[in-house]
UniProtKB/TrEMBL annotation:
Keywords: Cytoplasm, Exonuclease, Hydrolase, Nuclease
Enzyme Commission identifier(s): 3.1.11.6
Pfam families: Exonuc_VII_L (PF02601), tRNA_anti_2 (PF13742)
This protein's name: Exodeoxyribonuclease 7 large subunit
Highest taxon in the source lineage: Bacteria
UniProt GO molecular function: exodeoxyribonuclease VII activity; nucleic acid binding
Name of the gene this protein is made from: xseA
Domain Exonuclease VII large subunit C-terminal stretches: 136-428
Source species taxonomy: Bacteria, Pseudomonadati, Bacteroidota, Bacteroidia, Bacteroidales
Signal peptide positions (record): none
Organism: Segatella bryantii (Prevotella bryantii)
Residues in OB-fold nucleic acid binding domain copies: 6-111
GO CC annotations, alphabetized: cytoplasm; exodeoxyribonuclease VII complex
Catalytic activity: Exonucleolytic cleavage in either 5'- to 3'- or 3'- to 5'-direction to yield nucleoside 5'-phosphates
Enzyme class: hydrolase
């Protein structure tokens, strides 16, 4: 008989080979294709892709037990400010382990957070360079926020505290300014940020003439969620958007690609509200100052002119009093002209209201005529369905116990039936 090893002996042999050949920990670079935790234990699926074809050329699994993983994860999140997620490039320190019962595993000893930070920074720079090469990086900066910016489209999560703070501040501003705010809900955390925000931008774009500005805000959240705003597709959509876009999605030290290419970047949703309020307040102050200046200038000029005329009138002999009268008449004419202009403006508004009323009356009358015609048609249909008309045509109706007989099989011998004709009734006994 052939000498054979037991399965345990074979696995133990593999265990010894791995322990001898791979005794130390190894640093490895890979992309995280799947990440999950179970009862505090970490399980990863690692992948490496071809640089040109973007197809997998190597795969492996790695894991770490809870008592060690809690410290590794905490250190990674503290330094990077991010959670581990699929698609992230990471550098792991692993060692090989082969167990007779459970097979081969790569066991995680450590993670280098600086590698991940560097990879994300590289990707961000690549996105920025692509936008500059396309000539769209500064497109938003060229848009001007309208002076009377009051129609605001907001992209945010429905139940986000930041959105509530934004609306509260806009509606209760110290100047009493009025804003029209419409929410376009979107997912502001996780992997769905890109598709969700683009979907909201498309909805706004269909009605872009109804808005003055778009505000993208995120109420709090971890710094790790900022990665969803660092995508090329989302940046291209924002850069090419026809309306100015204000972003308030990060913290003071965090600046996403979206922040860089937007028209205006603020720190928080509250700061976005403050920006819009102050913008409109400045316009209001400019209008108010201009109005005050015009009023003061006109009043001062008129006072000065009256004093000058009065002074001249006191010095000029009576024979030149016509000159004074002429100047006073000019002032009266100016005042009359102003009054006439105001009167014409009021009259124009009244005429406009009259035209609206005249335009509405025919429409209402047409609606009444249409409904009256519809009632007449219904009345004719009802009249045509009147049984008395059928009786006048020579038809009859047979009744049994007050109910119309439609089927002769329903009658029985001895039943008394009533046949109703146009003039009178005929009672019969069924034989």
């Amino acid at each position: 008989m052939k000498q054979a090893l037991s399965l345990y002996e074979l696995n133990h042999l593999v265990h010894d080979v791995i322990a001898i050949q791979l005794p130390d920990s190894i640093w490895v670079q890979a992309e995280l294709s799947e990440y999950r935790e179970n009862n505090g234990h970490c399980f990863m699926e690692l992948i490496e892709k071809d640089n040109h074809l973007n197809t997998p050329i190597a795969k492996a699994s790695a894991k770490c037990w809870r008592n060690r993983w809690v410290y590794i994860r905490a250190g990674f999140e503290r330094i990077t400010g991010m959670h581990l997620r699929a698609g992230m490039k990471i550098m792991l320190q692993v060692h090989a382990e082969f167990h007779e019962n459970y097979g081969f595993s790569w066991m995680i000893d450590d993670i280098d957070p600086t590698f991940t930070l560097g990879d994300m920074a590289r990707k961000r720079l690549e996105i920025i360079q692509v936008l500059k090469d396309e000539g769209v990086f500064d497109l938003q900066k060229q848009l001007v926020i309208p002076m009377f910016c009051q129609r605001v489209a907001v992209i945010s999560s429905v139940h986000a505290a930041g959105y509530g703070d934004f609306c509260h501040q806009m509606q209760n501003n110290e100047y009493g300014l009025s804003f029209n705010i419409e929410l376009f809900p979107a997912v502001m955390q996780g992997e769905q940020i890109e598709k969700s925000v683009i979907r909201a931008l498309n909805l706004i774009n269909e009605r872009y003439e109804e808005f003055d500005v778009v505000v993208i805000i995120r109420g709090g959240g971890a710094t790790s969620d900022m990665s969803g705003f660092d995508t090329l597709v989302l940046a291209e959509n924002v850069a090419n958007f026809p309306l100015p876009i204000i972003t308030g999605i990060g913290h003071e030290r965090d600046e996403s690609v979206l922040d860089m290419i937007s028209n205006t970047r603020v720190k928080t949703p509250t700061a976005a509200a403050t920006f819009l309020i102050e913008h409109l307040a400045q316009v209001y102050n400019r209008v108010q100052n201009a109005s005050d200046f015009i009023f003061s200038y006109v009043r001062e000029r008129m006072t000065r002119e009256k004093m000058r005329i009065q002074h001249l009138g006191g010095r000029i002999p009576l024979m030149f009093s016509l000159v004074k009268t002429s100047h006073l008449r000019k002032l009266d004419a100016i005042e009359s002209k102003l009054n006439n202009q105001v009167g014409r403006l009021i009259l124009q508004q009244f005429q406009y209201l009259d035209r609206l009323q005249m335009a509405m009356l025919p429409a209402i009358q047409r609606k009444l005529n249409k409904e009256q015609y519809r009632l007449q048609m219904i009345e004719q249909q009802v009249m045509l369905s009147d049984p008395t008309l059928l009786l006048k045509r020579g038809y009859s109706i047979t009744l049994l116990n007050g109910k119309v007989v439609k089927d002769a099989s329903c009658l029985h011998v001895g039943d008394e039936i009533i046949t109703r004709v146009e003039n009178g009734e005929i009672r019969s006994i069924v034989k």
